[in-house]
Amino acid sequence: MREKRRGSNKADFQLAFDDGGALARRKTSFLPDGSYLFEDELDFKGVIVAKVITCTAWLIELYHLEAGEILFNEGDESVRPLTKTFGVFYPPFTISQPGLKDTRGHLIGVASTESLPAGLTTIPTIFETTFNAPPERAAEAIEILKAGEHTQSIEMNPKPSLLTLKAKRLIDENYLAYPSIARIAARLRVTHEHLSRQFKRDLSMTPSDYLRQLRLADAPLMLARGEEIINVSHDVGYNDLSRFYKQFRKTTKTSPGACQTMMKPKRPLNNQK
């Protein structure tokens, strides 16, 4: 992934992917309730597969595809949106695996740490929607989700083993304290090696990999809000700044500083109206 800065008003920045294609960010702003709004133009060639891991923040994306498709792995199945205009909901502490194939289109996204309404699904989903204008606040994005039709689950593995579920729950509850995977295994009365094998079999990553990616999942939103990098490092559980830089680059393929420059709106949060 390579950043391409532009001096024109057409895009705040563009990311070129080594596998082919680009993402051009047309707009970044904060809504009045502090939620993060972004608009992207997608232009991908070939097939690109990603993994979306959320921490405390949730994400709603609204797509309008002009060409190609986006599909999601759910176990051994591939789930496809039924229309070219659809939404995607990534709740907190979930794992999804979208894939883009020769995709061209427009994307509107809202990320927030606002509390979700009781009773709302905790499973990643896609849904049909005719809404293609930027929401004005997080609550409006939630209403779009609620009004969505033909909802389909896109949970990467809807039936993981009980051992993996228990281990993931313990990691989710203690990620800021950098829990020892060996101690989690001991608590679950299995060996570290057995837990790692089962976890990877279920979620395509080891418990240590999941912990690392989970701790960094909220960092881009914090950086977009203009928080100092050293404070973000501490807030996501890294007391060693150099280690934070190393793990951030390993996970996102860019640096915290470059990420902040790319994502931060031109006006600070307290100036948003």
- Oligomer state equals single chain
Series of H and E elements: EEEEEEEEEEEEHEHHHHHHHH
**Which stretches are low in confidence, meaning pLDDT under 50 for 5 or more residues running?**
1-9, 268-273
Whole-number average pLDDT?
87
Shape: globular
Q: Which architecture of the largest domain per CATH? A: Sandwich
Q: How big is the Rg?
A: 19 Å
**DSSP strand count:** 13
Total separate domains: 2
Note the total helix count: 9
Highest-level CATH class of the largest domain: Mainly Beta
Report the helical percentage: 25-40%
CATH superfamily of the largest domain: Jelly Rolls
What is the strand content?
A: 25-35%
Biggest pleated-sheet summary: 11 strands, antiparallel
Give the class from helix and strand content and strand pairing.
alpha+beta
Distance between the termini: 33 Å
